[in-house]
Design goal:
The protein has 344 residues and is of the alpha/beta class. It folds into three domains: 26-125, Orthogonal Bundle (Endonuclease III, domain 1); 133-221, Endonuclease Iii, domain 2; 226-343, Nucleoside Triphosphate Pyrophosphohydrolase, CATH 3.90.79.10. 41% of the residues lie in helices and 15% in strands. The protein has 14 helices and nine strands. α5 (67-74) crosses α6 (80-96). The longest helix has 17 residues, at 80-96. It is globular and about 80 Å long. It binds iron/sulfur cluster.
Length: 344
Amino acid sequence: MKSISEHILSWYHTHKRDLPWRYTKNPYLIWLSEIILQQTKVSQGTPYFIQFSTKYPSIYDLAFSSEDDVMKTWQGLGYYSRARNLHKTAKIITEQYSGHFPDSYKELLKLPGIGEYTAAAISSIAFDQSIPVLDGNIYRVISRLFGVTLEIGTTSVKKYFIGHAANLLGDLPPGDFNQAMMEFGALQCTPKNPSCDICPVKNKCSAFANDNVHLLPVTKKRNPLKDRYFTYYVFHDATHTIVHRRANDDIWGGLYEFPKKEHSKLLNYNNLKHGDDEMEVVDLRHILTHQRLFIRFIIIRQQILQKLEGSQQLIQLKKFDTLAIPKPIVLLSQKSLIWKSLIS
Ligand code: SF4
């Protein structure tokens, strides 16, 4: 009789999606795919994987590119510290490991941006090491299969789940089995409306037997979103505008933006005074994982040299699109015909 793990592995061989990183055991490409897919849906991450692996076919290509170039390629994926760490790790591997990824889980953990999950994924998929992975999908599958009601989020609970994952992995092919568990969670044992009726392990599933699938896994309640209010001053003349590079200690670290002020509440439009300068105001709202941003752009045509401060720099309007910029600034060209015509 087949075990739970063998059922899930067979299911994977029949149902797995045809994804570009499934055709390789090259640790560089496996690493790229894992970093891109952290907190990103496969449908959103796949074009980025193709773009990165085409533009930087080897780790040397990535390491020798500029950070600005990597940030631009990453633009739109969010969590920009991942892109900075990607670049840092590529440099370390080329400089200290002669361009070869270390094959040990512990050595992988020393690299920027590689945590327990990514180290386990790379060492099992690229190097066939028998190390179980644990991501959100696998937490869910294990919770339901074994009726685990422990709240996810602490180190001791994580160890408990890793124990289950290791038992399930046993001596099966680790790369295939780890991917099978993730895929099973993503397609079969989904957060809402899992396909229990056609599930190959429903007869062995605790949650299905006890009719509490909808209650598992037990997760912490999310904190409410934090509201932030930004005003961007899009100073421009006929040829240039002003930008600066964001610091790395906040959202969008390393990306470029216009001069900005942050307020504790939305500014009253009537309070804006800019003399007789030509001006357009564009408002938009943008939701991030933990924050809700209320953004006001004030596009002002002025003599701009006198506006330059600190680390700000002038950029030609025609070259604006070459900068790595946050999503709301990308969206500005859809919201403002004036801005669109200036940069096109
Ligand atoms: S029976 Fe339902 S809850 Fe249990 S493993 Fe299958 S899909 Fe998940």
